[in-house]
Design brief:
The structure holds 2 protein chains of 2 kinds. Chain A is an alpha+beta fold. Helix content of chain A is 39%, strand content 24%. Chain A is built from 8 helices and 10 strands. Chain A has helices spanning 68-84, 99-107, 111-120, 135-145, 147-156, 165-194, 224-237, 267-277; strands at residues 15-25, 45-49, 52-61, 63-65, 88-89, 95-96, 124-133, 198-203, 211-220, 242-250. In chain A, α4 packs across α5 and α5 packs antiparallel against α6 (165-194). Helices cover 43% and strands 9% of the residues of chain B. Chain B has a two-stranded antiparallel ribbon. The radius of gyration of chain B is 22 Å and the shape is flat. The chains are: A alpha+beta, B mainly alpha.
């Protein structure tokens, strides 16, 4: 790739490398005038090889990636793509030397595996459901359900915090354990509600101590309304107790696994799909 | 109505809340191409962000205890009817089976049952 002409000092060595966002089918329309990561951001382009394409943009050398703008550009490009076509997201920060390397060392090497993996995401997108407990409501529940918590609460109320430190720690631990248990139960409840609209689901780690549910779902594009309706019903049940948000559609970040990229010509792949299809509805003996 | 929203938003300025969601969602996700393919990458530094991991600590416990001691239970009961002591609701939840957990576990099992390709050049960092 030719080094772009650059203002002195602004582009260091004046060389560029190739940032890779994700893998798509080669017949994707050009991406228009979408700007990518880096400063200044370059236009996103498609590198094609065989039946595949890679979404890339030039980044200057030397350079740093990881600003809020970079992270959002990475996600926006992949998520906007996922609405239209299947896409395999690469991890943030994936950079190769040249467009030729992207074609020859990435697309060519994993051609069959990428193509097979893309087929699994045809007509599907990822959604993330996040729920957060209403603190006062979940605390009240725990006090109601756990006599020891209610007793400890009476013990510490109006007392000097230093003098009741051990009781406070014990009380907090009981509450924390109660929330952990509620999180597991509420996540199962969400799974039951969402499963009929989903191809697959993954439980994500909580990122806040009051997180109630945090899951990634792989959903057929045609089932989006069903998912929104199911979650709306659940949100009504949970009103005042858990607030939920639905993020998406987005690229299938949580479902793009190494195993998808192996031996696309063997049964492994069909096994994956069979496995996923079997989970479309809750099984009575699950 | 719960409506799906793309976390990064579209076309607008990066928003702080959108950014938090984006970081959470893309962090450590996606296919990883390892150093073999990145060999000529002198000169790009990727700033990493530590994942927020919830680790319960004494501070957490003390904070919960303080919140509980401030809680006005009687007012809670009036303000949030049907939430406190709704044991039927709780038991219904407990009865449900771990469908979603099961789905996740199955995917994990599948991932674990697969060996890496001989070249080992592609891997995912999903922590499975």
């Amino acid at each position: 790739m030719a080094a772009p002409a650059a203002p002195e000092g602004a582009r260091g060595l004046g060389q560029s490398a190739c940032y890779v966002y994700g893998i798509v089918p080669a017949d994707v329309d050009r991406t228009g005038d979408v700007r990518g990561v880096g400063d200044p951001p370059a236009r996103v382009q498609l590198v094609r090889h065989g039946g595949l394409g890679a979404l890339v943009s030039a980044v200057d050398l030397p350079g740093r990636l990881g600003t809020p703008e970079d992270l959002q550009a990475h996600a926006q490009i992949l998520d906007a793509t996922a609405v239209e076509v299947p896409v395999l997201p690469l991890q943030f920060g994936t950079v190769m030397a040249t467009e030729e390397a992207v074609a020859g060392e990435l697309l060519a090497v994993y051609q069959e595996a990428f193509a097979a993996a893309l087929k699994q995401f045809e007509g599907r997108a990822q959604y993330v459901v996040k729920g957060r407990y209403v603190e006062q409501a979940v605390l009240a529940e725990a006090l109601e359900e756990i006599p020891e918590a209610a007793r400890l609460r009476e013990q510490i109320r109006g007392k000097n915090p230093a003098a009741t430190r051990q009781a406070r720690i014990r009380l907090g631990e009981i509450i924390n354990n109660a929330i952990t248990a509620k999180r597991a139960a509420d996540t199962r409840a969400l799974g039951e509600v969402a499963a009929p609209c989903c191809v697959a689901g993954v439980v994500r780690e909580p990122t806040h101590e009051l997180d109630a549910v945090h899951v990634a779902l792989l959903v057929e594009t045609s089932r989006r309304d069903d998912l929104e309706q199911a979650l709306s019903d659940l949100a009504s049940d949970w009103e005042g107790r858990i607030g939920i948000r639905l993020l998406g559609p987005m690229a299938p970040y949580d479902f793009t696994t190494t195993s998808m990229l192996q031996a696309p010509h063997t049964r492994n792949h069909q096994a994956t799909m069979h496995d996923l299809r079997a989970l479309e509805s809750p099984r009575p003996n699950a | 109505m719960v409506r799906a929203m793309q976390p990064g938003g579209r076309g607008g300025e990066p928003s702080p809340t959108g950014l938090a969601d984006v970081i959470e969602i893309i962090l450590d996700q996606g296919l990883v191409i390892d150093a073999y393919l990145r060999l000529s990458l002198v000169g790009i530094e990727v700033l990493t962000i530590d994942a927020r991991i919830v680790v319960a600590s004494v501070d957490t416990y003390l904070r919960f205890a303080e919140a509980v001691s401030r809680l006005d239970i009687s007012r809670e009961k009036e303000g949030l009817p049907g939430l406190v002591g709704d044991s039927q609701h709780s038991s219904a939840i407990r009865k449900t089976k771990g469908v979603l957990r099961e789905m996740g576990d199955r995917l994990r099992e599948f991932a674990e049952s697969e060996s890496l390709p001989a070249s080992g050049r592609l891997r995912s960092r999903e922590g499975y």
